[in-house]
Write a structure and sequence with these properties.
Blueprint (H helix, E strand, L loop, with lengths): L1 H17 L6 E4 L6 H29 L1 H6 L4 H18 L4 E4 L2 H22 L9
Antiparallel strand pairs: 1-2
Length: about 130
């Protein structure tokens, strides 16, 4: 259930990022012109992004741990931008999906996606039950 919620939130965050024209990040639906196809494309891209972030992102974070310490965590912006660019590259093979024009804008887009995910994660987190006395 958590993966599905994560994919939906990622899809929303990617959609918001694609609405910002200066970021040069776009989405290409697998059948242009229809809203349903756009939503399904966003969900598929978000699922691929979640898998890339879970598998490859974890490996990069383990290998780059000394860089995280050295840069006080600022390297995470570059890593997240790379993961977003990698997702765009993977979905490009299908002829639909995410497009990132420049790596720098991918870093900014990944930062915005991270902020949106953090806000929704804070809102949707499970509440702890209070102990009865």
């Amino acid at each position: 259930m958590r993966f599905i919620i994560r994919v939906i939130v990622n899809a929303f965050a990617i959609w918001v990022v694609t609405l910002i024209p200066t970021l040069q990040v776009g989405i290409t639906a697998f059948a242009p012109g229809e809203t349903l196809q756009l939503v399904l494309t966003l969900l598929a891209v978000a699922a691929i992004f979640a898998l890339v972030n879970s598998i490859i992102g974890t490996l990069i974070k383990i290998v780059a741990f000394p860089l995280y310490i050295l840069t006080l965590g600022l390297i995470s912006f570059v890593v997240n931008g790379f993961l977003l660019w990698l997702t765009a590259w993977i979905t490009g093979f299908f002829g639909w999906g995410l497009t990132v024009e420049h790596f720098g804008w991918g870093i900014v887009a990944a930062l915005i996606i991270s902020i949106i995910n953090a806000v929704f994660g804070w809102i949707l987190r499970p509440q702890k039950k209070k102990a009865k006395r």
